[in-house]
# Entry
Amino acid sequence: MTKDGKVISGPPVTVNEQGFIIAEDGTIMTPDGKILSGMRLNADGQVVGPNGELYDASDLVVAEDGTVRTKDGMILAGVSAGTTGSVLAAADGPDDSGGSVDLIIGGASEDGVAKVTTLPISN
# Structure
């Protein structure tokens, strides 16, 4: 939803019991929206690493370069997080009133808070 209340469509997402955001297409994201590759969902909807171990979102740390580590510093080989942003679905176009949308790029943060860039929409 934009600041002025316009609803932008996209795929439905849920937060699983481990704290990961799961998109309808199975895309796995960290709580701050970084898309993870190298992890998968098992039949119970749990996030599993390449080694077959279950992980909670709170146990992972994502570096600026996309490297994924456990809280104790162990690098998860074969797992990375998108740091340049990704499009999950195209947003519906705005009506004739213009407006703006907020762009949040995974991996860009200050003190753990995602940077938000407001982009104007012109017709």
About this structure: The chain has a mean pLDDT of 78.
